[in-house]
Amino acid sequence: MSEKPELVPGETRKLEVLTAIPKNEGVDSAVAATRRVISALLHAGDRTSAEMGAVAAQLNAIADHLDEHNGPVDDRLVDMWSGEGVTRHDPITGAENAIAPPLHLAGREDGSIGGVVTLGLPYQGPPGHVHGGVSAMLLDHVLGVSNAWAGTSGMTARLTLNYHRPTPLFQELEITGRQMKVEGRKIWTEGVISVDGEPCVSAEGLFINKQVPRPR
Amino acid sequence: MSEKPELVPGETRKLEVLTAIPKNEGVDSAVAATRRVISALLHAGDRTSAEMGAVAAQLNAIADHLDEHNGPVDDRLVDMWSGEGVTRHDPITGAENAIAPPLHLAGREDGSIGGVVTLGLPYQGPPGHVHGGVSAMLLDHVLGVSNAWAGTSGMTARLTLNYHRPTPLFQELEITGRQMKVEGRKIWTEGVISVDGEPCVSAEGLFINKQVPRPR
């Protein structure tokens, strides 16, 4: 870690490669509403007095309606991966993915990237704190985007996470990443999740410059 | 990795510590329906002809209804963590968490644990394959449950993931874990995600035997 430049908050500019413009903005609002439902169901739990049978029936009716309009999944995969590599579906930043918090990332002039996110009940591990696996998921993605921002991307080969202190729910987290070194097809990248300037989880990744082919 | 016993499918028995009985079964069905909505929205994407504005309004109405019945989040946190440590809310196995695939885990007589899961569009990273961060999230949790099954649990201190081959979507994945060693407060645990018997991602974790206090 000795070669690591300090990852400090700095001047940011829009990371345009990551912000595809939706062709149907209603999808993004439906996904945002689904995030509210996910959180409210967890908040409700199994001691709620809400009529959960009726809620389940309404949600199943919405899923049925969407399924009726959906074509074959193979066609959708081709569609998802068409264009200039800008995706809207990943589980960390994806506007179309209700699993994503979502994290919004911006590239910085110094070559690093960063974003802030506040995580609620769906991301809980220990009481009142972020699940260690969620931190790992966020950091793996941030390292991948750091590579894209630096201009040389690859697949994760090895990822090492160090947990320094519990990461709180309901507080603004800063997540930063930076590509450190490229040698041949190997790429080394680092990132950190911090709260109030104190590191909670840090990550070091080794990536290999290759890609899974896109579906056609 | 040389000391690693082979993690083979074997005789399983129910991992009772992980299967709390819901007090309101409707919650589980509402969460299952929400998983269908998450997946259908991703399948729809932003080129769908479905009336997404109407879908968003319906979903927001459901969230509003649930919010009206929900009490303070601090009370919910106390409730979540009451009882014998059996939780239903984590983002990997939680019946109340629509982010969870969910993965069902079972303990084995040989001290390992395992489960199978098939992941769809919400968990995608590279085209048609599981996001490396999702694999990390699943394995961190499986290592934690392996510790619970072995009888000595802790917080993740370091997690190392090795990615051997891309992990496919839409195919049954086997995930196994095993506690390897305990020395003082240090715990070493390993796990692997396999498809058709071939390892895709393996994990080694170091855990420290301490806990975040429960809310009261």
Automatic annotation (TrEMBL), chains A, B:
GO biological process, one term: fatty acid metabolic process
Domain RHA1-ro05818 N-terminal helical: 18-75
Gene Ontology cellular component list: cytoplasm; membrane
EC number: 3.1.2.2
Database matches in CDD domains: PaaI_thioesterase (cd03443)
Ranges of residues in domain Thioesterase: 128-187
This protein's record includes keyword Transit peptide: yes
InterPro entries per record: HotDog_dom_sf, RHA1_ro05818_N, THEM4/THEM5_acyl-CoA_thioest, Thioestr_dom
One family name in Pfam for this protein: RHA1_ro05818_N
Principal subcellular localization: membrane
Group of enzyme by EC: hydrolase
Localization, UniProt: Cell projection, Ruffle membrane; Cytoplasm; Membrane
UniProt catalytic activity: octanoyl-CoA + H2O = octanoate + CoA + H(+); tetradecanoyl-CoA + H2O = tetradecanoate + CoA + H(+); (5Z,8Z,11Z,14Z)-eicosatetraenoyl-CoA + H2O = (5Z,8Z,11Z,14Z)-eicosatetraenoate + CoA + H(+); dodecanoyl-CoA + H2O = dodecanoate + CoA + H(+)
Keyword set includes Acyltransferase: no
Membrane topology: Peripheral membrane protein
Entry GO MF terms: hydrolase activity
Keywords: Apoptosis, Cell membrane, Cell projection, Cytoplasm, Fatty acid metabolism, Hydrolase, Lipid metabolism, Membrane, Transit peptide
Family per record: Belongs to the THEM4/THEM5 thioesterase family.
Name of the protein in question: Acyl-coenzyme A thioesterase THEM4
The species this protein was found in: Nocardioides daedukensis
Classification of source organism: Bacteria, Bacillati, Actinomycetota, Actinomycetes, Propionibacteriales
